[in-house]
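Before a computer can learn anything about folding, someone has to put a protein's shape into writing. The outcome of that step, for a single protein, is printed below:
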Amino acid sequence: MKKGFTIIELLIVIAIISILVGLILPRFKGMQDEGNIAKAKGELRTLETAVESYYIHNNSAYPATLALVTAQTPQIVSAIPTDPFSAAGAAYGYVRGGTNNKYYVIYSAGPAGNGSATITADAVAETNPTSCIYASNAGQDAQP
């Protein structure tokens, strides 16, 4: 008699491995989202510091676009980072508004990829509060 595995034994082992992979992969996706949320929050805080620095060094005016903070002195950021949740590799969103354009919001699309924010009545208004991540001088982000 020859020694070896039967086809049934091999199929059982493959089935068990497939089940284990199916249980483990969603956990890695959740960990990746958590990492991207932390990355986005950190980058948004840095961009918020750059916008506030621009305000201090430019006659109490916030930049019209986020790209302007890369050319200021002192330079806080040399380039605008890309949103880790943007499928197209786009930069973070930036909107000014409110009374006399004295408020701003810098936002990420968030884990669902469809979040955005704007300034309405001197406060931040989110299109998808469970996904959008933002930094603003008009309020603090409570999600995610």
Q: What stands out?
A: The mean pLDDT is 88. The radius of gyration is 23 Å. DSSP finds one helix and five strands in the chain.
